[in-house]
Amino acid sequence: MRFFDPIDWQRPWLAPFRATAESIVHSPDWRATINAQAEQIGLKNHRGLPIHFVPQASLPRGMAYEAFISATGGVPTRENLHDFFNALVWLTFPQIKVQLNALQAAEIAKSNAIPAARGKVRDAATIFDENAALLVVRDASMIEALRAHDWREVFIERRHEFGQRCDVWLFGHALMEKLVSPYKAITAHAWPVLAGDEYFGMPQRDKRVWIDGIVTDQLAGGCVTAGFTPLPVLGLPGWWEGQDQAFYADVSVFRPKREGKTITV
User: Fold this and answer.
1) How many structural domains does the chain have?
2) SS3 of 137, please?
3) What single-letter DSSP state applies at residue 138?
4) A single Pfam family, by name (predicted)?
5) Is 32 a domain residue?
6) Which domain holds residue 31?
7) pLDDT at 95 (0 to 100)
8) Residue 264 has pLDDT above 80, yes or no
């Protein structure tokens, strides 16, 4: 049994990754297959170096992970779910991953010391990389309702809008790892994106490419934790069973708004 065998690829949140993952999980050398796919799409980092997935031992002692990717194009990758999902995200949202690495590398270069205080930009970029969900909405009032923790409005009163006026794409590889063994309290840091009518009429592949580009442009202006809003992902319509009134009344998961508090995961 291999480490990724427990993944249930029929889960709705994994739909955007199935086609990419299929050849990887059936390959006798999954890392080689990931590298072949990266080469096929011409995946390069912000310095123009080809992104390739290397064993963890390739990372020199004392060198920051993100600085290594920036300097070499190599992504240290262990034989575990965490790094496997990280590789899938590189292949699915390559521009966003490149931009996040560029942000991290620039902040590390500024600090000129390892280890050093991460700073607000690195903290926000790390949260994005590990736990973000990309929340694409047609109506800004949906974002406002989420920020207000008005779960009833979002998940019950406006339930019909999901799929037609609201789209959620997982990005954080730690978030995806947690969802291999789902539990109700799993909460993403949602990154809101406003989209027009044309987005919701696109094929899935075109949607993904559009999101990759627009979020990359957003991150080019920086990344701050105030940009996120909490999203209990198993509350998304159709993502879990038993989503009745009592399900959403669970305040241990669907928490009331507490001013001045940041989200916890």
Assistant:
1) 2
2) strand
3) S
4) DUF3025
5) yes
6) 12-117
7) 98
8) no
Number of H-type helices and E-type strands within the chain: 12, 6
Residues 6+ apart with CB under 8 A from 90: 38, 43, 51, 53, 75, 97
Q: What is the pLDDT of residues 138-177, one digit of tens each?
A: 999 999 999 999 999 999 999 999 888 999 999 999 999 9
H or E element, residue 169: strand 166-170
pLDDT tens for each residue of 99-113: 999 999 999 988 765
85 within domain boundaries:
yes
Domain boundary among 79, 98, 117: 117
What is the pLDDT at residue 110? 84
Least Cα distance to 52 among 38, 63, 68 occurs for: 38
> Do both 27 and 109 map to the same domain?
yes
Structure tokens at 185: 């309290």
Q: Which residue has the tokens 């065998």?
A: 5
Encoded tokens for 21: 């993952």
In a domain, 263, yes or no: no
Best CA proximity match to 96, nearest among 172, 196, 16:
172
Query: Which residues, other chains included, contact 48 with Cβ-Cβ below 8 Å and sequence gap of 6+?
Result: none
For 67, the enclosing helix (H) or strand (E) is helix 65-72
Q: Is the pLDDT of residue 122 over 60?
A: yes
Q: Which of 81, 68, 84 shows the shortest CA–CA distance to 34?
A: 84
Q: Is residue 4 part of a domain?
A: no
* Interatomic CA distance for residues 96 and 110, integer angstroms: 21
Give mean pLDDT, residues 120-141.
Answer: 96
